[in-house]
Specification:
Number of domains: 1
Shape: globular
Strand order of the largest sheet: 2-1-3-4
CATH topology: Rossmann fold
CATH architecture: 3-Layer(aba) Sandwich
Largest sheet: 4 strands, parallel
Number of strands: 6
CATH class: Alpha Beta
Keywords: NAD
Distance between the termini: 32 Å
Structural class: alpha/beta
Protein name: TIR domain-containing protein
InterPro entries: TIR_dom, Toll_tir_struct_dom_sf
Helix content: 25-40%
Pfam families: TIR
Radius of gyration: 14 Å
Length: about 130
């Protein structure tokens, strides 16, 4: 893991949480003086590599799972990067926003690329069946 710049990286589907929930969460982080990263700190249209670097520069990745989360390739890429950096000490904390653990239970990531990735979201985030 490189040098840490942020305590928390916020991984979310903007369409689901940007208005309301995210504003409340950011307000709370600011009041508690917690250094966080959220995507609007970059210029619109920046490449995904910047976001992936910010994940590596964070101690915690807060994954806000919401109804349309899995429709976003960017969200999926961020989760995959968070899973890679977990071995280097990054913690992943799932937050369930307008979805239950049972809703997320069947979500899978299938990613084409250098190698195909098939990942069951709940198992990879460390949720055990007794949690749902």
């Amino acid at each position: 893991m490189g040098q840490l710049k942020y305590l928390v990286f916020l991984c979310f589907r903007g369409e689901d949480v940007r208005v309301g929930f995210l504003s409340y969460l950011i307000g709370t982080l600011k009041r508690k003086s917690i250094k966080y990263y959220v995507d609007y700190e970059e210029t619109r249209g920046e490449v995904m590599e910047i976001f992936l670097r910010r994940i590596a520069e964070s101690r915690i990745v807060l994954v806000i799972l919401s109804p349309k989360f899995m429709e976003s390739d960017w969200c999926i890429d961020e989760v995959l990067k968070a899973l890679e950096t977990r071995e280097a000490g990054t913690s992943i904390i799932p937050v369930f926003y307008k979805v239950s653990v049972a809703d997320v239970k069947g979500w899978n990531i299938v990613k084409q690329g250098d190698r195909d990735k098939f990942i069951n979201v709940t198992k990879r985030l460390g949720l055990r069946s007794k949690d749902y």
